Amino acid sequence: MGLSTHVLDTMHGCPAAGMEVALYTTEGEDANLVKRFTLNADGRNPDGPLYDNASLRVGTYRLVFDVAGYFKARGVALPEPNFLNRVSLDFGVAHADQHYHVPLLVSPWSYSTYRGS
């Protein structure tokens, strides 16, 4: 299955449809944009996996989620500056033949993630 992500809005109890996300490959402090996408109604990339098994490589990656933009678009009154603006998750892929699922559970004030299945 490669690499995938899924975002759940814990404030409203639903997928984070419409959230903007960017995927980067990283090497040290350098980050190279792979793609930008907008989450679909299920809170997932509309094009399916971010990488399939044949394309995923051992290395380090970054997912950047536009949390403040999403909640502002939902009409949530956020303080200035926002507590969370963008959530950036840096993670490593050690076994390119395995599936790496990187979910994000998020509200305007907190988030959590884990390696899913």
Describe the secondary structure blueprint for this structure.
Blueprint: E1 3-9, E2 14-15, E3 20-27, E4 30-38, E5 59-66, H1 67-73, E6 86-93, E7 100-106, E8 111-113
Parallel strand pairs: 1-7
Antiparallel strand pairs: 1-2, 3-4, 3-5, 5-6, 7-8
Descriptive account of the structure:
The chain is mainly β. It has one domain (3-113): Immunoglobulin-like, CATH 2.60.40. It contains one helix and eight strands, in the order E-E-E-E-E-H-E-E-E. It has one helix at 67-73, and strands at 3-9, 14-15, 20-27, 30-38, 59-66, 86-93, 100-106, 111-113. It has a four-stranded mixed sheet, with no helix packed on it. The model has no long low-confidence stretch (mean pLDDT 97).
Defining key terms:
single chain, mainly beta, 117 residues, 6% helix, 4-stranded mixed beta sheet, Immunoglobulin-like
Average of pLDDT: 97
Helix content: under 10%
Question: For this structure, what is the CATH class?
Answer: Mainly Beta
Q: Uncertain spans, ≥5 residues at pLDDT below 50?
A: none
Q: SS-based structural class?
A: mainly beta
Radius of gyration: 14 Å
- How is the largest sheet built, in terms of strand order? 2-1-7-8
Could you state the CATH homologous superfamily? Transthyretin/hydroxyisourate hydrolase domain
**Percent in strands:** 35-45%
Q: What form results from the Cα inertia axes?
A: globular
Please provide the ordered H/E string of secondary-structure elements: EEEEEHEEE
* Number of separate structural domains: 1
Q: Describe the sheet with the most strands.
A: 4 strands, mixed
Which second-level CATH architecture applies? Sandwich
CATH topology-level fold name? Immunoglobulin-like
